[in-house]
Task: structure prediction
Amino acid sequence: MNPIIATLKEHNVSDEKVHELFQAFTQNPMMAMALVQQLGIPPEKLQQLMAVVMTQPHLIKEAADSLGIDQGQVEQAKAQFKNQ
Result:
């Protein structure tokens, strides 16, 4: 399992929140960082998680792919956001 998803699951983050988070990562990484901080993960684990994200950004794409988030969905979400 992807180490980012594994850490989130370890801290009882719901599947819905995981999916939402990775959609945010693919659209706006800074927004995703803010979302991660709101998940109630202890600071020491959050720091480890952020280190993994920053040093291994390919894991974000792998996780998004494993969650079924493709580039078409990302582009569609961006278009919807712009139209609001």
Remarks:
- The chain has one domain: 3-83.
